[in-house]
Amino acid sequence: MNPYQILGVSENASDDEVKKAYRSLSRKYHPDANVNNPNKAQAEEMFKNVQQAYDQIMKERQSGFSSGTSGSYSNRRSSYGYGYGGAESSIPNELRAAMNYIQSGYYQEAMNALNQMDERDRNGAWNYLAAIASEGLGNTMSAKVYIQRAITLEPNNLQYRRFQNHLEQGTSWYRNTGRGYERPFSTTTSSFCLDLLLLNMCCFCC
Question: Which domains does the chain have, with CATH numbers?
Answer without folding.
Answer: 1-80 (1.10.287.110), 91-206 (1.25.40)
